[in-house]
Amino acid sequence: MFKNYFKIAIAVLRRRKFFTFISLFGISLTLTIVIVLASFIDHLVSAGYPDTQRDRELYVNSLRLMSSKQGYSNTGPASFYFLNTYVSKLKTPERMAIGSIYVATNTYVNNKKLVINLKYTNDEYWNVLSYYFLEGKAFNNTQLVNGEKVAVISEETRDNYFGKGVSAAGKYLETDNVQYRVIGVVKNVPVTRVFAYGDIYVPYTLSKSDLNNKQLTGMYTAILQAKDKDDLPKIREEYNQMISRMPKTDKEFDLIYSYADTYLESFTRMMPFSSPGNSGITIFYAIIAIFFLLFLLLPTLNLVNINISRIMERSSEIGVRKAFGASSKTLVYQFITENLILTFIGCLVGIVLSFLIIQVINNSDLISHADLKINLNVLFYSLLATLIFGLLSGVYPAWRMSRMQVVHALKAQ
Amino acid sequence: MIRLQNIEKVYRTETVETLALNSISLDVPKGEFLSIMGPSGCGKSTLLNIMGLLDAPSKGGIQIDAQATGNLSDKQLAQFRNQKIGFIFQSYHLINDLKVLDNVELPLLYRSSTAKERKQLATEVLEKVGLSNRVKHFPTQLSGGQKQRVAIARAIVGRPEIILADEPTGNLDSAMGNEIMEILINLNRQEGTTIVMVTHDEQMARKTHRLVRLFDGSQVQ
Ligand SMILES: Nc1ncnc2c1ncn2[C@@H]1O[C@H](COP(=O)(O)OP(=O)(O)OP(=O)(O)O)[C@@H](O)[C@H]1O
Ligand SMILES: [Mg+2]
Asked: By Cβ atoms counted within 10 A, which residue in A9, A114, A149, A254 is the most buried?
């Protein structure tokens, strides 16, 4: 029986080219957008080079100081002082990567200005994150403590500064009037991985101003890596304890809020809908879900409309089929099959289209070094979306059609 | 074969209530070729649709093959139509998206049969109505008479005991009409198929066993 539905469906879709085209266009366009958006979100949220261990990591992205009397607050990245004095004393994390937010520095190559984003890090940073070294290696603790002027640079920086593919290890690079000896070159990191992105990475000991700053807010973030992901709740707990025991030295800001968050939480924490004690991640998920639902709803309604008018057009066929022995249920199956085939083809076209678009995004400068991909997660959710799409847009019209009186259906010609 | 008892059919629209059939009782024995005549709007099509279980009467009962049909479910009704009844319509009602052969196979789709059996049966009946050379055409590529012959092939492919034909020659010229009539008469004679045919043509009606006249929803002869 299914083979027949299939055969009929294909025959109908081929004979009604205009309708088929309009439907396919709507479905594949919608799905393309859904897939590209989903893969973008996946790119933002999921673990990826070089931060591949996200499931056993917590992030310290921001710190909020509040004045309980005046009611105003000051939110921003933490200071090196805060991370070093308090966070680094935590027992549960196995490792802690400290990195500054990147600062733009200027250098000149052949009299042409080149902006290089510089990041200060500690030595463990290189153990927590899995950078791929094209040549050389990272700086070690001794080099850090001694304040050696060494640097790890990105492939792009090497290509721009020393020439494409030219070996850079041991050579010197000067930026903002400081000379660094290049000791390693790493594969480029997408700018969207803010904890790990940089053009040049140097020991934090070279940043004198940061080290002497005794304020709690500054320009550093940290990644706490646990031995095992089961330790994460314990780390959060220990972190909260640590914050609550911190001495209140500041007269102005007497409340300190800071959390060890999962990757996504560390960002939703900064959204207006979050509050102390609530990372806002649930609201964030809800917003995303509602957005996608609304986004799918419009084309679905459209398709429902097209399907209904198509069914009205085919009322004579429905009447005939019923007259010759098709039950309402059989007809419902037939129409849903037709619709599923249509959505499925639309989905295939959508996947191909989004694959192309993602390639274009990856190869453009829209997001530098982006590595968007259609991974299994994205594919799964897109297929789910298709199924919902196909069912939603097919079931209601099919149900209406099946309730049509035979006599009525035959007359309407 | 078909027994109608006190059939009444009322159509209600927002403004008017039409009594399309008024207390019709009719017995069609097995193997009879019955024709129904009457002025336009007198309820002929309504009567035929009720006989074919396409429409439910407002009152009264229908027995087909000695079986009451009043309480059948949608699925059972569909099965009943599939097994026992073949329809022929004035405006053919072929499915334009399907080829002639697929149109004829249609009733067989809704019973258990293999693709091979379906193809064979459909080819056989198309031969019978003289259209073996048009199996791969689409309905839009056929003349009116050819379309009606396809429709007949479709009606008889499942070997139903009853054929219900609503003005099968209404859209055809007299030569074509006579050809169609020949096919029906042969079917009735050779296979013993019970046929009920609505017509406007006295000459056609005269070739059948019995004539029933309707006027304003009532039987007058
Ligand atoms: N779906 C409907 N709703 C309302 N009234 C209807 C409906 N179908 C038929 N009627 C009315 O019922 C009456 C009988 O209609 P029917 O189609 O049976 O006539 P007919 O004898 O077949 O006419 P014709 O020879 O023109 O085909 C007509 O008055 C018609 O207007
Ligand atoms: Mg009529």
From this structure: A9
End-to-end CA distance of chain B: 20
Q: Is A118 among the domain residues?
A: yes
Cα separation, B188 vs B205, whole angstroms: 14
Looking at the structure, tell me whether residues A148 and A25 fall in a common domain.
no
- For chain B, the structural domain boundaries read 31-42+72-219
The minimal CB distance from B82 to the residues A12, A325, A407 is found for A325
Question: B138 in helix, strand or coil?
Answer: coil
Fold of B31-42+72-219: Rossmann fold (3.40.50)
Which residues of chain A have a CB within 8 Å of the CB of B57?
none
Does A101 fall in a domain? yes
Reported as a single tens digit per residue, the pLDDT across B74-105 is: 899 999 999 999 999 988 999 988 899 999 99
Range of the domain at A189: 62-260
Report the predicted TM-score, pTM, of the whole model to 2 decimal places. Answer: 0.72
Q: With beta carbons under 8 A apart, name residues in chain A contacting B91.
A: 413
As for how many domains chain A has, the answer is 2
Q: Report the nearest-CA residue for atom 16 of ligand 1.
A: B43
B83/A8 touch (CB, cutoff 8 Å), yes or no: no
Among the bound ligands, the one closest to the CA of B11: 1
Identify whether residues A69 and A168 lie together within a single domain: yes
A82 & A38 share domain = no
Is A87 in contact with A60 (CB distance < 8 Å)? yes
The complex scores an ipTM of 0.93
Q: Looking up tokens 């090497």, which residue turns up?
A: A158
Structure tokens at A329: 């249920």
